[in-house]
Amino acid sequence: MKPSHFLIAITCCLSFPFSSFAQNNAQAKAASLNHIAFYVADLNIASTFYRDFFDLKEIPNPFNDQKHTWFSLGPNSALHIISGAKTKGNYFIEEHLCFSTPSIEIFIKKLKAQKISYMSFNKVINEVTLRPDGVHQLYLQDPDGHWIEVNDAKL
């Protein structure tokens, strides 16, 4: 084999894996949300809250036990509630789950009918925050103290 043919063959062999790797990196997709999971003190109370108040659809839980409830949060995303918290948590409002609703006014009526208090981000009771982008948002806590934002953002 001529030295020039040998160099061409080596160059092709060495460049193939690297060009293949670069192509795979360029085609890689961003990570996507799969699920959110957190502990609750009373699984039945928390499950009822998320199922009935937010109209979340319960989905099969592969553990098939009485310790987990899984809810769909839309295509390819879920909320996993797990029994086991010893007490209610003392959480920061910045650490929250957020749901969007078509009408914040209708959602507030639902809150009032259930006698559930809400507040602005600055924790002013029964006040809604207006973000700079025009989105209205309010905050409430689930039975275990986890913060939930509800807004009227159009995604």
From TrEMBL:
Keyword Signal: yes
Keywords: Signal
Signal sequence extent: 1-22
Record has Signal as a keyword: yes
Xref: Pfam families: Glyoxalase
Domain VOC: 32-153
InterPro entries xref list: Glyas_Bleomycin-R_OHBP_Dase, Glyas_Fos-R_dOase_dom, VOC_core
Name under which the protein is recorded: VOC family protein
Origin species: Pedobacter frigiditerrae
